[in-house]
Amino acid sequence: MPRRVRLLILCILTLICWSPATAEAARVKRKAALGPVGYQLSIPEPTTRYVHMRLELAEAPEHQTTLAMPAWTPGSYLIRDFGKHVYDVEAHDLDGGALSVARRDKQSWTVENGGRPFVVEYRVYAGELSVRTSYVDDRFALLNGAGIFMYVDGQTSRAAALELRPPAGWGVHTALDPGADAGRFTAPSYDELIDSPLLLGEAEVRRFEVVGKPIELVMVAPGGTNARPDRVAADAERIVRAFARTLNGLPFDRYSFLLIGDEAGGGGLEHHDSTAMIVKPWSFTDDRGYAGLQRLMAHEFFHVWNVKRIHDQVLGPFDYHKESYSELLWFHEGLTETMETRGLLRAGLISADEYLGTLAAAWTSYRRKPGRNHTPIAELSREAWIKAYKPEANHGETTVSYYEKGNLIGVCLDLTLRLRGRANRTDGSLEGLFRRLWALRDPSSGHASIDVDDIIAAASAEAGEDMRWFFERYVYGTEELPLPELLEQAGFEVVAARIGEHDARARVWSGIGGGAAISLIEPDSPASAAGLMLGDELIAVDGARVDSVGEANERLADLGIGATATLTLFRRDRLETRELTTAQNPHQRFTVLRPEQPDNPELARLRQLWLLEHLI
Predict the structure, then answer these.
(1) Cα separation of 181 and 172, whole Å?
(2) Main-chain phi, psi angles of 580, to 5 degrees
(3) What would the pLDDT profile of 411-459 be if each residue is shown by its tens digit?
(4) Among the CATH numbers 3.30.70.20, 3.40.630.30, 3.40.350.10, 1.10.390.10, which is that of 329-498+591-615?
(5) How far apart (Å, rounded) are the C-alpha atoms in residues 365 and 584?
(6) pTM of the complete model
(7) What's the pLDDT tens digit per position in 279-327?
(8) Which of 438, 435, 439, 466 is nearest to 453 (CA)?
(9) What is the CA radius of gyration of the chain?
(10) b/e per residue, 480-494, with b = 16+ CB within 10 A?
(11) What is the DSSP string of 5-40?
């Protein structure tokens, strides 16, 4: 073969082999091999609330490098645009030579680095105290990684190395892996870096071990608190032990409960190996304050499995540019509420009667929600970004919380699995469903990426029969949840009493709810018949001034059932009057009672197992 022909064939083969797909694969491989992103975090002047950041890329082979801030933080399904808190972005090479850096959009910046290593410095204003955001003052700092750390666009799998320089005397508390030197930490990816909040400041710390895994409780309360750290830590230990028994161990090397006492309150947010929680600091005068914190800790801790390691396929790895729509929030949050209560029951922090009382109160409240069956809960999960966290005035009429309904779906599913399992000679339960899903985890990542079919398959295995019908009716459909019927099948008595049976004022019903203005008008209610509208501001009842919807309802209760009152209101800028005639409250209050007489031994055993009384 002539030499020219051989050269031509070689060139053709080279072009074929070096296809765009091959080039992209090589580029991805090159990115995967890149060293860690270096971060340095300092707070030189806490009173200014600014966090100073230095990001170093020792390997940056692209001519242009795009850095970005997340638009949202995992666990909170709302676009927050963390880029709005970033100021004074500058870039330079490792010799100090200035590089061009330009803001590309609301959350990203492009650095003209010409393939060279470089450094970016910027400041972040941390002025919002919540578990979803970042806050700094002269006593402590709570830093949510999504609002602090930039990432290299397209390289969130790249490892991170963090150097912390807190103010003098401040401790550092985080679930990040400690490095070789004090103040240095590492993370295998950007996902884990920002999933490890930082709590800085003077703290009360309590430590304990469960199945050989170290757990710490970190409490910061700059204004003081009447919570006793030893009691909180003891409660946390009982909760951790309960879930370790349920799921056969703990899936982390160590875990941190990060707790702040502040009048802002704010609940909690789950993270991979920690949780950040904010509670009112002076709410522990009696057991009710501790009971509320127990619930919060149990909820956030069960997220170690449900949503952090067992999660919808779209909830990790994350796309931080935009919303990640999931139809499984009812499962990840609602069933976590179900397991939260069951964890407290297993831990001995609530009794079986308290468990039944809590369930009856939840059902009573749920049945009063006019929007509970308006839209399938799977659809409401997907729409959480635009409806749950950006509610319109008619929110209460057309939606329901996926926490609230999801919890009751979880209870109904648990009872159904136990009842159907009894009929099919299996030991079905919600705990068993989670154990089956946990068994699906990938050995290398330790995560189970699931969809609804995986949940249905686990439920069907627990029940010993196909359970798809349950999800079609109650998750993708809008049929009323069958909780009373299921409880009665299990041998309990469900008593429904009319609201106000022993309270004449509670029997009076107007059908309006709200604060300064009307935010809820119940269907077929006196308020609806009177022509009231969402947004109306009630200012008087029969000529007597009122300052809120609640106060208006109090005045109407004074009048009794069947009384007609003149309501004076502002509808935008117009002063109007309406006549409202009160009616008998149609709502019911539910109670769940155990059977007084012995019944079927199998049902008695089912109830004993469901209430975990076999552990007593």
Answers:
(1) 13
(2) -125, 130
(3) 999 999 999 999 999 999 999 999 999 999 999 999 999 999 999 999 9
(4) 1.10.390.10
(5) 18
(6) 0.93
(7) 999 999 999 999 999 999 999 999 999 999 999 999 999 999 999 999 9
(8) 466
(9) 28
(10) ebbbbebbebbebeb
(11) HHHHHHHHHHHHHS-HHHHHHHHHHHHHT--PEEEE
Residue 183: which region, alpha, beta or left (left: phi > 0; alpha: psi -120 to 50)? left
pLDDT at residue 542 tops 90: yes
Q: Does domain 505-586 have CATH number 2.170.130.10?
A: no
pLDDT at 13 > cutoff 70: no
Q: Which residues of 101-127 are buried (b: 16+ CB within 10 A; e: fewer)?
A: beeeeebbbbbebeebebbbebbbbbe
| Band of pLDDT at residue 20, cut at 50, 70 and 90 | very low
CATH topology of domain 34-202: Immunoglobulin-like (2.60.40)
Q: Report the run of H or E that residue 567 belongs to, with start and end.
A: strand 564-571
Distance CA 152, CA 454 (A): 34
With vertex at residue 508, the alpha carbon angle to CA 503 and CA 509, rounded to the nearest 5 degrees, is 135
| 491 torsion bin: left (phi>0), alpha (psi -120 to 50), beta (else) | left
Tokens representing residue 429 in the block: 């339960």
What CATH topology corresponds to 203-300? Neutral Protease; domain 2 (1.10.390)
> For the segment 107-161, what is each residue's pLDDT rounded down to a tens digit?
999 999 999 999 999 999 999 999 999 999 999 999 999 999 999 999 999 999 9
Whether residue 21 is predicted with pLDDT greater than 80 in this model: the reply is no
Compute the distance between CA of residue 201 and CA of residue 220 in angstroms, rounded to an integer: 7
Facing residues of 598 across strands?
A: none
Overall average pLDDT of the 203-228 stretch: 98
Residues facing 312 on adjacent strands: 450
Distance CA 407, CA 401 (A): 10
> Where is 495: in which H helix or E strand?
strand 493-498
Would the pLDDT of 178 be above 90?
yes
Q: What is the DSSP letter of 480?
A: P
DSSP state of 73: B
Kindly report the average pLDDT of the chain as a whole number.
94
Q: What are the tokens at 322?
A: 């935009």
d(CA 28, CA 540): 68
Residue 371 to residue 520: CA distance in whole angstroms: 11
Neighbours of 209 (CB within 10 A): 11
Asked if 294 contacts 344 with a C-beta cutoff of 8 angstroms, the reply is yes
Q: Which residues contact 439 (CB under 8 A, 6 or more apart)?
A: 448
pLDDT tens-digit series, residues 326-355: 999 999 999 999 999 999 999 999 999 999
Is-contact 588 497, C-beta < 8 A?
yes
Q: At 41, phi and psi to the nearest 5?
A: -120, 130
Identical fold, 203-300 and 329-498+591-615: yes
Domain chopping of the chain, boundaries: 34-202, 203-300, 329-498+591-615, 505-586
Task: Pull the structure tokens for residue 3.
Answer: 């030499």
